[in-house]
Amino acid sequence: MLESLLENKLVLTLVAVSVILLLRWLLSFFFTRRSWPKQDVRRRINTVHNIGNLLLVVTVIAIWVSELRDFALSIAAFSVAIVLALREVVHCFVGGVYQAGMRSFTVGDWVQIGDQMGEVIDSDWLSTTLLEVDPKGLGNGYTGTTLFIPNSAFFSQPVKNLNFMRRYIEHSFSIVRESKGTNPLKAKAFLVERVREHCEAFREVAERYCKMIEHRMGVELAGPDAKVSFTTNELGHDVVTVALFCPREEATDIEQRVIEDFYSFWYGEPRDEEAAASA
Predict the structure, then answer these.
(1) Mean pLDDT over residues 246-252, rounded?
(2) Is the pLDDT of residue 116 over 60?
(3) pLDDT in tens, 199-243
(4) Model-level pTM?
(5) What pLDDT score does 22 carry?
(6) Cα separation of 65 and 173, whole Å?
């Protein structure tokens, strides 16, 4: 009786698939009960799922190899159509193997694939799942949208790992003001001093983080010291540009405080001069 059941490939397939799925579930359950960081738990569960899926495919093919061979021979006339139909699947599979070999990112990293940017929350042999991050937004930047990127995109679109810029970023913003014949450079020293005061709380951490990024990525960053520059646009308006290296969560708040400082200085100074002249 047992031998006949083992010779039945359908029963054998069901048993093998059940055992693999049970083992995968037990390992995932075991990892979720650990007190590890969430990213480590998510990374281990993702690895278990990928290995389990690979074992499922290999096991089913090994059990049905003779039938699959006969089936492949019987549909030789349709081989071209099958290849065309599965071309995208093959591209996705090869793209997944390519990414796994390159190790360009792992679960938990912030990446940009083409025009899409997000945090990697899952990656398998066919697709990569991102929790979208607004490239123009600051703070945490999550939009709440989940992106499913086919792995074939790794061959046609650039992949950028943004993990080092997850905590600190080079943030720049501009203030445009209509030129009325006054000298805007009078505000430069004031703005440099005010930006330095706003960034003093995290200056030492920013210096260390900046050096770490430069060492690991082989690039030269502007550094924690703010840069204030003045230009004009095509309309002849004055453009004040401020660039600084700061925590992502504080970038918007610092920008608003600097803008308030600029306008307080600009519109406060003429009133003081007028008061002094009238006196």
Answers:
(1) 81
(2) yes
(3) 888 888 888 877 777 776 656 665 667 788 888 888 888 888 988
(4) 0.52
(5) 92
(6) 62
